[in-house]
Amino acid sequence: MTIGPDSSAAEIVDALVALGDPDRAAGSRRFFKTAPGEYGEGDEFVGIRVPVLRALAKRLRGLSAPTIVEVLESPIHEARQLALFVLTANIGARDSDRAAWVQVYRDAVRAGRVNNWDLVDCSADPVLGAWLLAADDYAELIEWASSEDLWERRVGIIGTFAFIRAGRADAVLAVAPIVVADRRDLIQKAFGWMLREVGKRIDRALLIDYLDAHAAEMGRTALSYAVEHLPAEERARYRAM
Q1: Distance linking the first and last C-alpha atoms of the chain
Q2: PANTHER family annotated for this entry (predicted)?
Q3: What are the CA-CA distances from residue 215 to residues 45, 88, 174, 208, 220 (Å)?
Q4: Nearby residues of 187 by Cβ (< 8 Å), 6 or more positions away
Q5: Which of 143, 157, 162 lies closest to 226 in space, CA to CA?
Q6: Pick from 77, 100, 94, 87: which is nearest to 31 by CA?
Q7: In b/e form, how buried is each residue of 93-102, taking b as 16+ CB within 10 angstroms?
Q8: Is there a contact between 213 and 197 (Cβ–Cβ < 8 Å)?
Q9: What is the sign, positive or negative, of the torsion defined by CA atoms of 114, 119, 120, 124?
Q10: What is the pTM of this model?
Q11: CB neighbour list of residue 232: distance below 8 Å, 6 or more residues apart
């Protein structure tokens, strides 16, 4: 089935189902922790690789907001990811109504449609983070990071990546006091990753200053991510704290 920007949500989802690989889907269900009690409990996969989804997103660029919203409502993980890829492409279009697309994204997150780490990580930075960077205001990221919901909090953390890419550590350092004590694995990994990127992309001294002051408060996973690119002796020193 050929799909394009005029396709309906049902046609898009049907095309994904037709492209699916049951063996890959089974592996994805294990990898994304969909068993009862796990963070991705109940999520459905049809088994499509991310490069294939990105290629489809190029063909769907210009898909209408109502259709994207409808695809985001699909129980199929790959459908929601495809919708986020298209949304990201649409927000980058020269004549796009960026404010409207960002609101579509906010609504999707609040509705629980951006509900796994890969969905957050492919969208929070280029959609919400980039919008807030352009506005020179990261206050909304602090609000998201203050949520007790796992995925909303991760959006607040990963959204700071847009600022880090622009050479600014202020957003993640403002979010840090809110999330440093959260021991959930997917929060730990996101927080440590953003700190690592501060040291890698902006200034290692900023990372060192933060670690000197706060390493003892950090969870083991966040600290391991944050110090990954430091020399072995420094890594050992911070882990001993």
Answers
A1: 57
A2: ARMADILLO-TYPE FOLD, DNA ALKYLATION REPAIR PROTEIN
A3: 38, 35, 16, 10, 9
A4: 150, 153, 154, 157, 179
A5: 157
A6: 77
A7: eeeeeeeebb
A8: no
A9: negative
A10: 0.95
A11: none
Non-local (6+) Cβ contacts of 131 within 8 A are 91, 98, 99, 102
For the chain, list the strands marked E by DSSP. Answer: none
* Residue 1 pLDDT > 70: no
Determine contact, residues 207/235, Cβ cutoff 8 Å.
Answer: no
Calculated CA dihedral for residues 132, 135, 139, 144, nearest 10 degrees = -20
List the domains of the chain with CATH numbers: 1-119 (no CATH), 123-241 (1.25.10.90)
Q: Tokens at residue 4, please?
A: 């394009």
For the record, the structure tokens of 208 come out as: 């060192």
